[in-house]
């Protein structure tokens, strides 16, 4: 039977402009170049010398894959290589048990974290991978062919939901609609490793960076952009929210990466109760600041996932762009509260939205009121 027809691939984000291209590539790929094998279900992980985990996602994606990576480390005696984008270098380098980190240049400039990337630089970066098994965790049609063509390995394992799955030696079953950690756990299932209980972030990282905040009680607000305009919240909303807290005499700490124009706006906020650390912290320093906060407020971004995994009381503002059930923060004992507006265009999967009403309908008043509910009895404003 035709392998492509038998698979009946359901692509992630089926309405994307890339989906017809994926179908075209897979139509011919599965017929003439299919590398899928059916005899790779009984591999002993410790019969191999090295594993490379390719995680080209953003900070939040990396954090959510941390439990899987750490459990492989716990059960594997060989070398573990993390192949990542430049944005998550600090995370990968500080993750306990990491043997080597390779920074990959994304083949498509639009997704690259470098201003000097090119196809040639991407090829050179992928050629640094030389291991027994490669785990490509995202099912990315942009990444899989480059691994297949330019990296050295015995087996390439991953998902076929993003195209080019015919180049994988082993295709894993994708858990549609389940939390993203269940997707990453499929690699543990492949190696017959028991699924662990997710631990707090400081179990995976040595959070030894000093906390520069001297106040005992403070609220952290992560401002700036998420990397996807459709998930962003207008700067005027942030400024109004900040002033609402300052007017009630709460100490507010601002964190995050912001543009020069945004910096000018936030620098106009002149208040002794405001501590502006935007563009001033490393990730490990940021985690130390968040860890001691009484409340964290942020968008669907890396710092929000970090706050949730640190066990801090977290208020997350979510858009309707993606399936919330898949990318919701990991919580401990109910420490996460979500503000999300249901809209008709839910799950649009648009990186850029001309009218992101799902975020525009979230008002500073809504966020402030929920915040007060969360911190009442926990944080005094005296």
TrEMBL record:
A GO-annotated cellular component: cytosol
Pfam families listed in its UniProt record: Glyco_transf_9
GO MF annotations in UniProt: ADP-heptose-lipopolysaccharide heptosyltransferase activity
Entry superkingdom: Bacteria
SUPFAM superfamilies per record: UDP-Glycosyltransferase/glycogen phosphorylase
Glycosyltransferase as UniProt keyword: yes
GO terms under biological process: lipopolysaccharide core region biosynthetic process
InterPro entries per record: Glyco_trans_9, LPS_LOS_Heptosyltrfase
Alphabetical UniProt keywords: Glycosyltransferase, Transferase
Annotated PANTHER family: LIPOPOLYSACCHARIDE 1,2-N-ACETYLGLUCOSAMINETRANSFERASE-RELATED, TETRAACYLDISACCHARIDE 4'-KINASE-RELATED
The name this protein goes by in its record: Glycosyl transferase family 9
UniProt lineage: Bacteria, Pseudomonadati, Thermodesulfobiota, Thermodesulfobiia, Thermodesulfobiales
């Amino acid at each position: 039977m035709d392998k492509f027809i038998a698979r009946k691939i359901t692509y992630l984000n089926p309405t994307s402009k890339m989906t017809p291209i994926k179908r075209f590539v897979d139509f011919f790929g599965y017929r003439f170049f299919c590398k899928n094998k059916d005899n790779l279900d009984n591999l002993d992980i410790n019969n191999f010398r090295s594993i490379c985990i390719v995680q080209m996602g953003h900070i939040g994606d990396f954090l959510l894959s941390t439990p899987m990576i750490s459990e492989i480390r716990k059960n594997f005696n060989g070398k573990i290589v993390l192949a990542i984008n430049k944005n998550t270098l600090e995370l990968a380098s500080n993750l306990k048990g990491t043997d080597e980190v390779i920074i990959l240049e994304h083949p498509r400039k639009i997704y690259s974290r470098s201003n000097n990337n090119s196809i040639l630089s991407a090829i050179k970066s992928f050629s640094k991978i030389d291991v027994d098994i490669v785990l490509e965790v995202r099912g990315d049609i942009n990444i899989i062919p480059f691994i297949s063509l330019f990296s050295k390995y015995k087996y390439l394992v991953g998902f076929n939901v993003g195209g080019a799955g015919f180049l994988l030696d082993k295709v894993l079953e994708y858990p549609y609609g389940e939390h993203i950690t269940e997707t990453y756990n499929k690699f543990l299932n492949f190696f017959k490793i028991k699924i662990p209980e997710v631990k707090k972030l400081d179990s995976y990282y040595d959070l030894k960076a000093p906390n520069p905040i001297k106040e005992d009680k403070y609220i952290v607000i992560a401002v700036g952009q998420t990397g996807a305009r459709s998930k962003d919240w207008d700067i005027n909303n942030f400024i109004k929210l900040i002033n609402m807290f300052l007017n009630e005499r709460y100490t507010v700490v601002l964190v995050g990466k912001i543009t020069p124009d945004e910096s000018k706006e936030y620098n106009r906020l002149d208040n002794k109760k405001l501590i502006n650390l935007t563009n001033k912290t490393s990730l490990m320093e940021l985690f130390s600041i968040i860890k001691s906060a009484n409340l964290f407020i942020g968008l669907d971004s890396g710092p929000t996932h970090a706050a949730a995994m640190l066990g801090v009381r977290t208020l997350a503002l979510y858009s309707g762009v993606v399936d919330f059930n898949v990318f919701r923060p990991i919580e401990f004992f109910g420490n996460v509260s979500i503000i999300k507006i249901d809209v008709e265009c839910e799950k649009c999967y648009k990186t850029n939205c001309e009218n992101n009403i799902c975020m525009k309908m979230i008002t500073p008043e809504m966020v402030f009121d929920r915040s007060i509910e969360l911190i009442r009895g926990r944080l005094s404003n005296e």
